[in-house]
Write a structure and sequence with these properties.
- The protein has 332 residues and is an alpha+beta fold.
- It folds into two domains: 39 residues; 280 residues, TolB, C-terminal domain (Neuraminidase, 6 Propeller), CATH 2.120.10.30.
- The chain has four helices and 23 strands.
- Strands 2, 3, 4, 5 and 6 form a five-stranded antiparallel beta sheet that branches. Strands 7, 8, 9, 10 and 11 form a five-stranded antiparallel beta sheet that branches.
- A hairpin with a 2-residue loop joins strand 17 and strand 18.
- It is globular, with a radius of gyration of 25 Å.
Length: 332
């Protein structure tokens, strides 16, 4: 009898241990799943495939579509709202938008800022999420005729975007395109000097001085001497790096320069994963720093001899890409 009781006691102990291990395993599994769900980005809801070390077309047939040129995408800090540029065949640039509602992204539609008197392109939401910048050829103020491309902005208050208005005169006196902002509201953009050739323009910046912009400066030659058509700069929120496009050997590629204690390093190509025989431009990074976005386009010649550009928005794991870039730079 004592042996039987001892045997039963041992079985009970083994059963309790087994149950304990099972509970620990289930808890660990739930914890891992919870962490994975927490780390998931709202942006992954737009694509069935999530990129790692190879660029993929972002949101095929929804954001990136056939027969159009889709480019220059930007996201709200919460990543529940996005804006991008779409150019339809024989059409003009228009800004489209999509919102995340009940864990589902809405179908892209023309943004609230749309105009019937000119075209709009290259939107950018600042890191604070309270300003949406974009380029437009719409007439300034009450004028009837467009005076060219100018930078406009809309402000967000209580969850609503205001009617767009042109930027300060400092920015209206020159061509300003693809403007991006740091978290300190310092502005970086493409521009050119009056009377100069457009291809010899470059990247300029303006420092936020207590809410005012008093002057515009051109970035140094380490960036602006890197080929022709130096443009489309994306500034990191903390200004630790800048990514931009430049034409070398008749091909537009993407480059990066790092800010080391206030000094910009030489520019490095983003490498063959990003840069191809097609044209790459319009870089941006998701607000959480996880994904790098850019456009890849090709030129098509129509039957009438005119040209048309087609392109999609691509994305790639930026944390992995930046790590590989830094490893390659350090090894060389």
């Amino acid at each position: 009898m004592q042996k039987l009781l001892k045997h039963l006691g041992q079985n009970k102990e083994r059963t309790m241990k087994k149950t304990h291990y099972i509970l620990l395993f289930v808890f660990a599994l739930l914890l891992i799943t919870s962490c994975q769900d927490k780390d998931k980005s709202n942006l992954t809801l737009l694509s069935s495939e999530i990129p790692t070390n190879i660029p993929l077309v972002f949101s095929p047939d929804i954001i990136s579509t056939d027969n159009n040129k889709d480019f220059a995408i930007t996201f709200s800090p919460e990543m529940d709202e996005l804006f991008f540029t779409r150019r339809k065949p024989k059409g003009t640039n228009e800004i489209y938008t999509s919102k995340l509602v009940d864990s589902k992204w809405s179908n892209p539609e023309r943004a609230f800022l749309a105009t019937n008197n000119g075209w709009d392109f290259q939107p950018h939401i600042n890191p604070k999420g309270d300003r949406l910048y974009f380029g437009s050829t719409r007439p300034l103020n009450d004028t009837i005729k467009s005076s060219g491309v100018h930078e406009w902005y809309s402000e967000k208050n209580d969850g609503e975007w205001s009617n767009p208005k042109p930027m300060e005169k400092l920015f209206l006196d020159r061509v300003v395109m693809y403007l991006t902002s740091s978290k300190n509201d310092n502005l970086y953009f493409s521009s050119a000097e009056k009377g100069g050739k457009a291809k010899d323009g470059g990247i300029y910046y303006s420092i936020n001085e207590n809410g005012q912009y008093k002057n515009v400066k051109k970035m140094g030659g380490v960036i602006n001497s890197n080929g022709h058509w130096v443009a489309h700069s994306y500034i990191a929120p903390d200004e630790s790096y800048i990514i931009y496009s430049s034409e070398k050997n008749k091909n537009t590629d993407l480059f990066i320069s790092f800010n080391l204690n206030g000094t910009w390093t030489e520019s490095y190509s983003l490498g063959p994963k990003i840069n191809t025989e097609q044209g790459e431009s319009a870089p941006s990074v998701s607000p959480d720093g996880k994904y790098f976005f850019f456009s890849r386009s090709i030129k098509k010649v129509r039957e009438d001899g005119s040209t048309n550009y087609l392109g999609n928005i691509y994305w790639i794991d930026f944390i992995r890409l930046k790590k590989e870039l830094l490893e390659n730079i350090n090894s060389n």
